[in-house]
Amino acid sequence: QVQLVESGGGLVQAGGSLRLSCAASGRTNYPMGWFRQAPGEEREFVAAISWGGASTAYADSAKGRFTISRDNVKNTVSLQMKSLKPEDTAVYYCAAASKSRAVPTTQRDYDNWGQGTQVTVSS
């Protein structure tokens, strides 16, 4: 079982940057991902990273603006977000895929979730 706690969310103006962090405890040698859910919308994939960090995957909306990384010594996963847009406003969730060896991009592959952190981008 993995316990995940997100931090770093907040209010930022369009064009600004934020760095989200996810602190993991318990067994953490799994692929990790970030998802987001905007009001009235379904939760969607944002980015994922393999256990070793060599492989990553991004949603089209995140490519070129977001960067996922991990520090396996500190057991943290980060999402650096730049050039933020109002449509990036959502609750962002960190997740771990304990049964996957790849870089999963669908929710059903993740079985451990954090509580989420709110990101609000003002226009």
Please give a structural write-up.
By secondary structure, this protein is an all-beta fold. It is 0% helix and 50% strand. It has strands spanning 2-7, 10-13, 18-26, 32-37, 44-49, 56-58, 66-71, 76-81, 90-96, 112-113, 117-122. β4 (32-37) and β5 form a beta hairpin. The protein is globular and about 40 Å long.
Number of helices: 0
- Beta-strand content: over 45%
Helix and strand succession?
EEEEEEEEEEE
- Residue share in helices? under 10%
Question: What does the secondary structure layout of this molecule look like, with pairings?
Answer:
Elements: E1 2-7, E2 10-13, E3 18-26, E4 32-37, E5 44-49, E6 56-58, E7 66-71, E8 76-81, E9 90-96, E10 112-113, E11 117-122
Parallel strand pairs: 2-11
Antiparallel strand pairs: 1-3, 3-8, 4-5, 4-9, 5-6, 7-8, 9-10, 9-11
Give a quick rundown of the structure.
The chain has 123 residues and is mainly beta. The protein contains no helices and 11 strands.
Name the features:
globular, mainly beta, single chain, seven-stranded mixed beta sheet, four-stranded antiparallel beta sheet, 11 strands, 0% helix, 123 residues
